[in-house]
Design a protein that fits this description.
The structure is a homodimer. Chain A is α/β, with parallel strands linked by helices. Chain A has 13 helices and twelve strands. The first copy, chain A, has three domains: 4-47, no CATH class; 58-157 and 292-319, Rossmann fold (3-Layer(aba) Sandwich), CATH 3.40.50.2300; 159-289 and 324-329, 3-Layer(aba) Sandwich (Rossmann fold), CATH 3.40.50. The longest helix of chain A is centred in the last third of the chain and has 17 residues, at 291-307. The structure holds a DNA duplex.
Chain lengths: 361, 361
Amino acid sequence: MPTIYEIAKLAGVSPATVSRALNGTGYVRAELRERIRAIADSMDYHPNSLARGLLNKRTYTLGLVVPDITNPFFPAVARGVEDVAHTNGYGVILCNTDGNLQKEAKYLKMLRTKRVDGVVFTTSRVQASHVQDLLNAGVPVVLADRRLDVRCDSVSADNVDGAYQAVGHLLSLGHTRVAMITGPANLTTAQERLEGYKQALCEHGIAFSPRLVLEGDFRQESGYRLARDIVRMDPRPTAVFAANDLMAMGVLMSLEEQGIRVPEDMALVGYDDVVLSRVTRPRLTTVAQPKYEMGAIACELLISRISHPEKEPEKVVLKPRLVVRESSVVREVEQMSRLAMAKKTGRTGATGGNNRNGQDT
Amino acid sequence: MPTIYEIAKLAGVSPATVSRALNGTGYVRAELRERIRAIADSMDYHPNSLARGLLNKRTYTLGLVVPDITNPFFPAVARGVEDVAHTNGYGVILCNTDGNLQKEAKYLKMLRTKRVDGVVFTTSRVQASHVQDLLNAGVPVVLADRRLDVRCDSVSADNVDGAYQAVGHLLSLGHTRVAMITGPANLTTAQERLEGYKQALCEHGIAFSPRLVLEGDFRQESGYRLARDIVRMDPRPTAVFAANDLMAMGVLMSLEEQGIRVPEDMALVGYDDVVLSRVTRPRLTTVAQPKYEMGAIACELLISRISHPEKEPEKVVLKPRLVVRESSVVREVEQMSRLAMAKKTGRTGATGGNNRNGQDT
DNA sequence: TTGCGATCTCATAGATGGTCGGCATCGTCT
DNA sequence: AGACGATGCCGACCATCTATGAGATCGCAA
């Protein structure tokens, strides 16, 4: 690894001149600058960001803390963060905490010794005190997908609105008994989605019944299990709103086994729009979160805060979007089926019709 | 951010003593050491890895280069890399190249100025010269999921064997006309899978027919498109082996539209075992790659190479594993259906029976 | 008890690679 | 002649580690 000293020696100038020539700062004769650049290239010179960072207190490195990159929600967010970081000359260090506070603490310690310029938290379960410690130490923090009672920037999606849209969709289709499977009661995302459910009911003049609300844990198995309870209710609900797609998937499986047709006998809506929801049968109606944008905006907020540490914290709230597919609307399914028939020739339907069981609908 | 100087002043000792006390190197009176540690803690001291790295030429940071973390194959690999890195005190910088050589070059430049201790390439398309440049500069490199004609460590899965297992499975079920949809001919993974297909045929005494092999591009649409060609063949094949799950998914959709039942009229096997393949209907028989292990082993190789730069390169080859689900075996489907019937009570089948369309089978 | 080497304990002085302000020099223009 | 711009060097500085060595302490043998 060559240094500016070696380049300086070869070029017959001082190291400082090399520095200025390569960075384009200060006065360096154009011809000399080119010569120095050529020498640097030929030596495969790469500036040492350690030495640089030591001096100007900037590492151009960010931390990204997620619970688990393997969870289908996070790669998109991470990609958003990473893209924005990269175009601004920053690198991103990935940290998987598994929602474990000890691991979280350990990672934060590492990020601090590495002197990262800022941290993006993309996770629904963060220790507020950890974030506060970071802020106290002067490390900018942006929260994504979660607001916390801490004075810092954040990006989140409007879970109340998302749930409101989903349930409103079901109600406007004529359903009056809509069951809900919520997430863990201590998570704000779960609480907000329940709130949206209530609001939608209220607006449609339907009384809220706590008996129709069952608490799941965001995992598939809980949806599978609770679907049985819903089916046994009397009168039986005609629609289910699951607070995330994984649980909706469990519901789908359970209903299938019980011979209950979706959406004819029971409509179903999920939340998150994970890839999976596009390939289930019937395909899942769900609420899409702008995952990539969340990450991208979080990173933009972070970078802007790095250069303006004192500005007022921004709280960005993004709008979720209802994606209507087959698990909620009978009409669509028939249409799909017709499309599939009519389309033996074209290939427009690569992601289209999948209803081979006409007799079911 | 306090430094050892400030701690030294408070403790009334020299900075060097603080350094030795905190690092446990050299001689420091036990009582003094404790006092220094207490002061450091109370000041929320975090050593500056820049200064440290500048001196001992170790950053404890690794680079991880993937095409796109959003592609379902990579999060698992990344997680494997990150876990091993973390337990060894390393941080991981994530780089998404999108298979774009310019971006790849730009990222590598960044990794070099950051003086990472090593790089894991987890991608099927790497520029050999980039890797060679890195190695020439003394930066250790490990390739995951890809072997390259370069002298460095690598981890990969045995694609020949995986395809061999997949096709062998179909042949042993009695199929004699097995079509294959390959990947882009210039990718080694695609070539190897084709080779496995040939070997399996050969071993079962079936002549290889080039007419049964169609070239796809690893994307869903190509599977969808080529499935029509396969259906039109005369005599029509009774089974299809797709070189990855995405293409298999396209085949599935196409067959569905054409009213061809899977697996009764046409058996189907994919490759990769992406999550999606567990929720299609019928669920996809496929070849699972040990993704997490690939990442973990790659990182272990890398870390061991960092401390032993001169040892012989290791080429680790992992075994893929055939996962038999419903798209290939008729019997299983029936069994599932029976299970589903019998299981109105238990919940063993959360991921089990999904066949509500008895009349289809 | 003394003497001497071995072991502790800690401070000083670079060194790491790069940046930046200050300053000296030189040429040119007014 | 004086001023000013262009050019390039010098030295300080960033936070930490390590080699070196000075002084203190201790054990053990004489």
